[in-house]
Every structure is written in structure tokens, then in C-alpha cells.
Amino acid sequence: MSKQLTQHPDHAMLVEFSAGTLAPALAICVSAHLHFCEKCRAELMSLNQIGSQLMTQAEPTEVDDSLLDAVMEKIDQAETMPSKAVEQETLSDFPFAVNQLLNNPQHKPFWKRLSGSVDIARFQTGQSDFEVALHRICAGGKTPKHDHQGLEYTVVLKGSFSDEKAVYNEGDFLVREPGDIHQPMGAQNGECICLSALAAPIKLTNPFGFLMKPLLRINPM
User: Against a cut of 0.85, is the pTM above it?
Assistant: First the structure.
């Protein structure tokens, strides 16, 4: 069912996603948003079509036979691999990209308590610019009021939360910058789970926020 979302990645991000040049952590977030958003999927399809037309107009380049053989071998291997991740997706409401991370056999994420209302599960994504993680807010729970020391991208995967500006529902794509002070609060009718990519730790506005600094460190990996 198509959801009426109010928060989306901007056009430039979709262009980079279509071209395959978007940073890995941000591509994961955009991919998660696309799972929910018919509008952005349609825009991405148009961008892909434009890209295909540009490809057909490009001058052909000679390819060594050994390179072609290597590509075909990779395709054959992909076709024979078990589709465990796809099967897992059909059993979950989470986007495919998130399920891929959840089912990483070498790095299974686990929940860790950040505060009385918030848990975190960090992902291993093979990049060093952003920490990619799930954040879970219990029903009616509040996060500490905080500012941002770097960019933060968030996609709501389950439930909803609100802050001083708006209510955010499943699929909404949020961008926070330094100076965006807010205090998210989970909906009363159930827990909220979000996917986030953080470039820097948040900064608590509480004068005693320094006591939580060790818990708020980010760990890009």
C-alpha cells in the first residue's frame, strides 16, 4: 500500500543514487526510503531511463575478452547462490537493504541500551564516514534533547515518532544538520524503530549531558 509521506531525499541524492555514486551509508538510507515511497520510486525510474538513454549514446569501448569472461563468471555465481536474504525479506516488513545488514553472518547486530527509552543496534557496512544503526524508542519514550555535530540521515522503519516540528511516519526520510535541536518522542501506541546514518555524535543540551558522552560515541565500520 502506498503511504503518504512528507519527508523525502532531495533530487540531487536520487540522481547520485541512480548513478551509483552516492556514499554507501546514504545509499542504504535512500534504499530503505524507496521501499516505502512510490513517489520517489517513480522519480528514480525516470532517472534510470535517462541514464540508459545516455548510455546508448555513448561511444563504445573495446573490452578485453578476459574481462568479459570474468563478468560472465560472476553472473553465473550469482545465479547459483541461495536466495536466503530474499526469503528473509518476505518474512519481514523491513526494507531489503536493512534485512541484508540484519542477516550479515559475520556481524550480527544486537541491541544496546542508550537510555531508559532508547536502544541502538549498530551495523557493519564497510565504510568509515557514517555510523549506520537502528534506533528503537519505546512506546511513549523520549530521547534526551540534543543538537547535532554533523549530518544525520534517518528513515522511519516501524511505528512513528514526533518532535517539536512534526510527526514522522514509516518511510519518512529526515536530514538533520548542526543547529537542529530537537527531542524525539515515540508514539504512545507502539515502539518506533529508525535507521540512521550519523557523521558525528549528537550533543546533549542538558548541562550534565557530558556524563553520557561515552555512550554517545559513534563507531563507523
Answer: no
